Amino acid sequence: MAADLSQIVKAYDVRGVVPDQWDESTAELFGAAFVELTGASAVVVGHDMRPSSPGLSGAFARGAAARGADVTEIGLCSTDQLYYASGALNLPGAMFTASHNPAQYNGIKMCRMGAAPVGQDSGLAEIRELVERWSASGAPEPAARPGTVTRRDTLADYAAHLRSLVDLTAIRPLKVVVDAGNGMGGHTVPSVFAGLPLDLVPMYFELDGTFPNHEANPLDPANLVDLQNRVRQEGADLGLAFDGDADRCFVVDENGDPVPPSAITALVASRELARNGGKGTVIHNLITSWSVPEVVEEHGGTPVRTRVGHSFIKAEMARTGAIFGGEHSAHYYFRDFWNADTGMLAALHVLAALGGQDGPLSGLVDRYDRYAGSGEINSTVDDQAGRLAAIRAAYEGRDGVTLDELDGLTVTTADWWFNVRPSNTEPLLRLNAEARDEATMTRVRDEVLAIIRG
């Protein structure tokens, strides 16, 4: 099939419906193009539990080997396990997953050696051009010496590496409910948590890429309900929810209440700064809570504000030598994990922080969750630019108001702020608002929504 790559090549990855939008023949061309771009003599490839993943990743491996690269297949893995393999083996890598998307989707997340990201501005556009050319004119000639394809299991080494980065030796016993959403957390959690003083209550650990229980997208509150109920029923200390490829982790406290990712960012930042002698740079995107830069500065660190998106976070991590970075979407990035994101390592930090003191998680989180936030609210609009201009006109020139356009439009005062930014892929505007109290946040949120929705 000749795939319409404009439909499946996104800003940071490849993603589309299988086989309607792409199939194994397309995946094979992506494998060849990936080797052509990176010039790699060897690559590492992994995949999630979706029904189409083994075939697609195998086809990618064939394409890469035909161009002369030796392929290490690590089989079933989480995305951060693939990043581990890329970092530890110092190889470019490709992960076959569509993360939290429904079962009929699949995709490829690609990275250079050391888990450095491949996005539109860092090689993905060139890969797309090669695949389009070869789709039209035929696959390139095989290399004089085709590469080999070998299997390697990295799960135990990945788990050991994560545990080496967090001191869990003295934590008290904890009861933790984990909802893997039938995704890759069901594969990685048992190995990572092995030997820890945890009473683990597993939910939906069976690997099933048709997602029979709920979508593996914990960002949607509907997909947290089962976990919240189970935490309350079990009298557990906390709950953890992973998305489909298990690179994001969401936390609920002992009451079943969701812990904002900004509070987790602040908590982990304080711990990473302590590990580094109270010094270091911490990256946060511009819609994380005010509490994040406050906590970073209180613990001796330097906060750096960035645009939303992992390519921007990782670029700033590399530029500044940052020790940690966090996003509102529950992506957490660590210098000691090749600047890549791993929700599992963030989860270990939460377990260490909770298990290192006697109080409940809700009390611990109170130190880091200081303001009233709206969460992200999406609105479908016909004219993104026009709505943004209307918002700017409504607030520009008001006393005590500052505006900036680092990413969309951010409006800030002493008591509240909001950001409105357009989606790159859909006719949406995304609103995030925060204030010093709930009433003010509600007023600001509703005022801006009235302009957005006109």
Automatic annotation (TrEMBL):
GO terms for molecular function: intramolecular phosphotransferase activity; metal ion binding. Keywords: Isomerase, Magnesium, Metal-binding, Phosphoprotein. Its cofactor is Mg(2+). Pfam families: PGM_PMM_I, PGM_PMM_II, PGM_PMM_III, PGM_PMM_IV. One of its GO terms (biological process) is carbohydrate metabolic process. Transmembrane segments: none annotated. It comes from the Bacteria. The keyword Metal-binding applies. InterPro entries: A-D-PHexomutase_a/b/a-I, A-D-PHexomutase_a/b/a-I/II/III, A-D-PHexomutase_a/b/a-II, A-D-PHexomutase_a/b/a-III, A-D-PHexomutase_C, A-D-PHexomutase_C_sf, Alpha-D-phosphohexomutase_SF. Residues 376-449 form the Alpha-D-phosphohexomutase C-terminal domain. Residues 7-134, 157-256, 263-371 form the Alpha-D-phosphohexomutase alpha/beta/alpha domain. NCBIfam families: PRK09542.1. Belongs to the phosphohexose mutase family. This is Phosphomannomutase/phosphoglucomutase. It comes from Streptomyces griseicoloratus.
